[in-house]
Each structure stands twice: as structure tokens, then as C-alpha cells.
Amino acid sequence: MTMNTNAQAMVMTKTTHMPASVRNARLYRKIALVLVDPASLPDGRTEPAMISNRARGVVRILRQYDRIYVGETMRSRGRQLLQELQTTADAYNSDNTSIL
After folding, report:
1. Nearest Cα to 3, choosing from 63, 92, 94, 64?
2. pTM, to two decimals
């Protein structure tokens, strides 16, 4: 598999489906670290429309977490995960080598 040299790592979050019995279902998110080719995104878009390998602009999904609770403070696992993935994405984009 050849890697696209213009690809950038990006952290994406989208809402996820939860059962009706779950309180605060809007706080549960799908979180992913995605490799994106900015040149193949539609005009005016800064990120793909969905977290999927089929989405336009997505080269590869590096890590994906489904149904993660993202609370208000850094004590929640979701906030910690977002910070960890953003650090990984920044490190990848700074030297653009495969550190993952």
C-alpha cells in the first residue's frame, strides 16, 4: 500500500446512535484519528462529511472509537482521548512520517 505524501492526520468527532434509555445520549460521540487528503475534499470543506473509509478525502482511518462519553471536564475519558489523539495527529503532521 502506498501512502499519500500530502495526507494529513486529523481528529474527527461525530454523534453516534444510542438507545433511547440512555440519558444524555448527545454526549456520546464517535471519535476517530483519520488520514485525510485535503486536495480530494469537496470545495469549501475542511473535513470529510463522515467517519468512513468511503468518505471523499479519507485515505485511511487510523484509530476509531465508538460510543465514547465526552463530558464537560478533562476527567472524562472522551476529553482525555481527544487530547491524546490530537497530540498524535500533531506529531504525524509535523514530520509526516509513519509514527502510528
Report:
1. 92
2. 0.84
